[in-house]
Amino acid sequence: MITTYGFSIATPNKDLRQPTIDAVFRWLNDVHPHDKRTNTTPVSVRHSANDAIFRVDVLEQDTKQAAARGTTITLITSKNELYFDLRRTLRPTKPALLPRRTIDRPELRLTQLVIEIVNIFKVRDASEFVKAEITLAKDELDGQRLAAFADAPGRRLPIVIETTVGKPHPLTSLTTAQQLAGIAHVAQVSSHVAEEAFNNFYGARKVSSSWITVMWPRGAEAENFHQQDDDELVKQLIAASVGSLVTLILAPPKKIKTKPSQSPDGSGTEPAATGELGRVNQELLEENAGLLENATLTAMLAAQKTEERDRAYDQLATFLLMDEDKSYLDKVSDAVAYANKNLANIAFHARAIESANSSQLMNGRRVYSNLVELNNLAARLQRGDFAPNVFNIYCNQQLSNFAASVSGEAENRYAQDYEIDWKGKNVMAKPHIRCGDARIHFYHDTDTNEIVIAYIGRHLRDKTTN
Prior knowledge:
The chain is of the alpha+beta class and 466 residues long. The chain is built from 13 helices and 19 strands. It has helices spanning 17-31, 108-121, 140-150, 174-179, 192-202, 231-244, 271-324, 332-342, 350-359, 364-383, 391-398, 408-413, 415-418; strands at 2-11, 43-46, 53-62, 67-77, 82-92, 124-125, 128-129, 134-137, 159-163, 185-189, 212-215, 223-225, 346-348, 402-403, 419-422, 425-428, 432-435, 438-445, 450-458. The strands form five sheets. Strands 1-5-4-3-2 form a five-stranded antiparallel sheet, sandwiched between helices. A five-stranded mixed sheet has the order 8-10-9-11-12. Strand 3 and strand 4 (67-77) form a beta hairpin.
């Protein structure tokens, strides 16, 4: 299991427990509404008024690889503080070595939750509040104040400082500050005077418009970033936050209190026995945590297998009907309409429906059979059984008469025949399947792993066209 995003924050104000829980439940209901949850997205909630631990765990299948993405939120009320911990994890669902470099920039709704928690807790880091905003240094006094904050010995979080003087567009933005909420402070120096004041405080050129500076806390050496955007910077800071997270070993919910055993002299629990019981209890807690994680993954995989079985039953019923009724789905237009309704893992562009309706072709069952195979391959792709860049290889193995592209002449002379408008972009549907007189052209959207059926009909113009 790899932690790909982590954020924690603590406050001595334990009265903020309920507002924090309310914020988490709002996030959960927005992202995973109760009426839309399935076995493939298990949600576990630990919540009781008498329990010092509140915990929500959500597991989702990652469509791009053989792994599940978990979101775990933990709120612990201790004697001295209220501690909030949020983690995103990557958990293999099959034997695999996953890259350690994996870091997630949080999506919008998760970022909004983190901002809400930061605003609820209202904690200070040295002299400044932790916030999801950019601090602006406009004049000499601002530059000196920012330098003093960067030098504060009690500071816990790093500071990202960008000098924006002379830049048409800053590399850091409000989005940067929001995605780093609770992880780092973000500041912009917007004048030469403020920049000079900051550098004079240190007696060295710490900040400049030529780089972005990260002032690490506790006397660690400052680090400069020279990239053309904020991506590597943000990911390195998230990775640092992940590395600073404490190991959480949570006791199970309390049930029935029992009286402690007494030593022979009545002085209390025997010290040796207490130590041994504590060790055994610790081992059991760790073992139970592993069992729970395995059980959750098993339940999710079982749900996937159930969905695959149901899909196979539906397809079998369709093929049996084809054998009983020789005219069933004979027309390509009927076969495509049926496929559009029943094959959930491929998308049908409007042009595919129109071209099938106007084709007047009568080999619909063969077309439908190929669409079923393509649908099954798309399901495996979206589940992460293989990488997107080898999808065409699997198509070539599973689909007869498959071609991964079209000729160069077809692409150059007749590009409009193969183009569709997909999400505001003109894309070419070059991979295709030959089904007698019919052709099935599709487009693989590598951003979302959607397989889009673009055209079903007679042979399009290519190098053989006069």
